[in-house]
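Shift notes (night). Ran Superoxide dismutase while the centrifuge was going.
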Amino acid sequence: MLCRVGIVGRCATNLSPSLSCVASRQKHTLPDLPYDYGALEPHISAEIMQLHHRKHHATYVNNLNVAEEKYQEALAKGDVTAQIALQPALKFNGGGNINHSIFWTNLSPNGGGEPQGTLMEAIKRDFGSFEKMKEKLAAVSVGVQGSGWGWLGFNKESGRLNIVACPNQDPLQGTTGLTPLLGIDVWEHAYYLQYKNVRPDYVKAIWNVVNWENVAERFQAAKK
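Came back to this:
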């Protein structure tokens, strides 16, 4: 579900760099949800999911494509000032696309319960128990000032799990070096229509739809 984009091949030397690079760039697209908008009810309403996916995530995708196109044009012109000026837009919208593409797969109408196997073993090793991990991730997520994310990530260097918060749409891996396993979106658009300003109730409810199979798959891939 991760939407990635890149330059297809290399810029042809016999073409204008602006035309060849921009024309060959694959655009990001909004990923489909692996379930219906109402599938996570009553924990997350269909209205929230539809707005969150079709409006908010779609906006990040669209704005990322625009920013990347402008950045390629700036590269072709050698306009370093414009390249620097575009960095915040690339980080914000690129992070929004990455974070949400992970988030949708982290959730499932068949979610909840507890993880199994090596993921559960790692959680117990690094946090003492599954409940302690939940408490810490919930506290970090609820405690985000303003908008942001709470994350369970994997540190490849230490081989251990970590819990951190990232502000705004800062991507976990690009900001901390941790591989994202489970993210909790605590921007108000993720919960306000249903939970108003009571973020703790939303975070408590989201455990009922966490897709631990997806988290475990990410954990196994991160260890390789």
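Strands lie at 148-155, 160-167, 179-185. Confidence is low (pLDDT under 50) at residues 1-23.
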